[in-house]
Amino acid sequence: MIDFSRRASNVRQIEKPQGRSQEIVARLKATGIYSFYASHLKQHSLVRGLGNWIWRNVYPLYVTYVIHIATPFGKRHAKLRRRLTRLSEFAGKRGIPIRKLADAARVETRIPRVFPDRDRGCLAPPHDHYEFPEVFVAIMGNAITCGGTNLIFADGEVVCHDLYDFERDTTSEELHGRAIIDPGFRQIWWYSNDEAPERIPVAATFVDACAPNYAHWMTEVLPRIALFCADERFKSVPIVVDDGLHKNIMESLLLVTGAEREIITLPSGKALTVDQLYVTSAAGYVPFGRRTSRHSDHSHGVFSPGAFEKLRDQLNALGQETKEEAWPQKIYLRRDSSTREIINAAEVEKLLVARGYVIVEPEKLTFLQQLQIFRNARAIVAPTGAGLSNAICCKRGTHVVVLMAKHKKMIYRYWCNLLTPIQVQVSYVLGNIKDYRGMGIHGNFLINPSDVADSLPALGET
User: 322-459 — its CATH code?
Assistant: First the structure.
């Protein structure tokens, strides 16, 4: 039995910043105006859409005005401007030591099985393959890592990972008012500053704006941690993660890091100055959003097969240490959410139960229970959602059918890009959105049960 209490004893929490929050979103949410909006207006799609539009368009204009025109504020804010530099470029210019963790890989992007067949074009990729770069660790001196962002502050520059596309991608940091990025000049204005960062001698940082989201944690953060912690060269290096993560996320972290590793949790807006900071490059990346809608070939996600195979092997080895139970081989994931619901879910569930599928609700399970269910399943049917990211724990040859709505901005290929390179077979059943409520790709949708039935023979029934 895995002793989580012993592992949790190695977790040290950095104190939250005192006084007025540096986070503009946190300050807004503390106002009476926001409370009134959240209680009485947010549920109306038109009002919510207008609020989002104002935030995305008016706030940047205001800050830009302050930066470039207003004085004396302009001079003060202009000091926050830094060059935005990719990690490999930063390391190369300064001769920073690099340690490889996973080889570069050529990833094939074939079209998966789609039901109904007439919708197969939705999954057509813009290319027949992509090259995922090697995953490496850069060892930076006197660098700053901040809670809630994977951006690193060093030598007067802001360092981002190599897969970030300045022209196409927008970031969570921009949406939440922590930064404004000028992609043309590759500059960033950073507005969330800790005036008194704590200093520590050595650490590896894995803080990330997307870390609290379970799917992003499993596909963008945890694979990097798994690679780093599996390397004997770094066995004594403490790791830094975001504070306040869900208990299942923390359970997955404690499984991967082992019993002895020191873990430091860093609140959003709080900074650490690290004398020797280990920064691991991206092992998977899905853009937070589009900077412009002009580009039709927006990324649906790219992933390192080597990183995900390492993570799966580690998790499955740990799963073997737990008590064996009679786990179902065919499962259906019931999605508990107010968005992207299957309108006729009851009809779909009735069909699947009749075919021998067991209904599973991931939100009600511990991480270790989810790990066991997925590693023992041979056939999985699920609506697209965070719970399906556990499929990275599936054994080679497992069949996954994804139920998804059709929408012009949908990132259809996310699941096949993620799972196919690690030999998990992926099919899709696409339905039509019937309940928009101003939710766009998150609207509720209908699935044709006959299409689900047609997809099941591909699951290799046992």
Answer: 3.40.50
